[in-house]
Amino acid sequence: MHDAREQEYGRWWNENGLDVSWYRHALFEPRRAIHEAFVAWTEAHGPFSRVLEVGCGCAFFYPEVFSEAQYMGVDISAKEIGWSRGNDPRGHHTYLCGDITKMVGVDIEPEGFDLVFSHAVVDHVPDVDLFLQACVRASRGRVYLTSYRGWFPELATHRQCWSPAHTCFYNDLSPSRVEECLNLLGCQGITVAKADNGSLPETLITMRVP
């Protein structure tokens, strides 16, 4: 990432005045089918005792889903992490502010979680391959990722565009490149598939970490 972009990256997410109601109505509800499919998947493949959500935002919905687990939420926005810490009703979840690609092995124990998941975050990261690697390194079991931008089977490489307004990237993922990257990382049971959101198709990525 260029120096100017690196300095700007994530600034909007720290400075916007949006609250949890915006997360619920603008980000969660339009993708409810994707979230419900993930919850059903966890019920089929769990239980999970240690769970990491990458890009937790205001920690809406999932702290309750994983109320009995050791749940950790990570986000680049100090504003959102501060809100999440102050609104943890049980007081036993953990929230960290930072970039997952720089945290594994520093703030996050490698292979520390039996489930690592992330919704609509890989769409905005500077380096898709590095993001995938960090999620895999943090897991000792399963990884589950969704990309809301769409399903792009025709792409041989990821298509990326910088957004000055939102100080992040917009990424269209290449399914073949995702699968290649995960194979190089030694993942098993890899799925890179089209997910149905009821309107715009999305990209679903799941794998097991050996």
What would the keywords be for this entry?
210 residues, 7-stranded mixed β-sheet, two-stranded antiparallel sheet, globular
Give a nutshell description of this structure.
By secondary structure, this protein is α/β, with parallel strands linked by helices.
Count of separate DSSP helical elements: 9
Number of strands: 9
Helix content, binned percent: 25-40%
Helix-strand pattern, N to C? HHHHEHEHEHEHEEEHEE
Helices and strands: which structural class? Answer: alpha/beta
Low-confidence stretches: none
**Main sheet overview:** 7 strands, mixed
Overall mean confidence score, pLDDT: 94
Strand content: 25-35%
Describe the protein in words:
- This protein has 210 residues and is α/β, with parallel strands linked by helices.
- It has 9 helices and 9 strands.
- The strands form 2 sheets. The protein has a 7-stranded mixed β-sheet, sandwiched between helices. Strands 6-7 form a two-stranded antiparallel sheet.
- Strand 1, helix 5 and strand 2 (70-75) form a beta-alpha-beta unit.
- The longest helix is centred in the N-terminal third of the chain and has 14 residues, at 32-45.
Note the topology.
Elements: H1 3-8, H2 11-15, H3 20-28, H4 32-45, E1 50-54, H5 62-65, E2 70-75, H6 78-86, E3 94-97, H7 100-103, E4 113-119, H8 128-138, E5 139-147, E6 159-163, E7 168-172, H9 175-184, E8 188-195, E9 202-208
Parallel strand pairs: 1-2, 1-4, 2-3, 4-5
Antiparallel strand pairs: 5-9, 6-7, 8-9
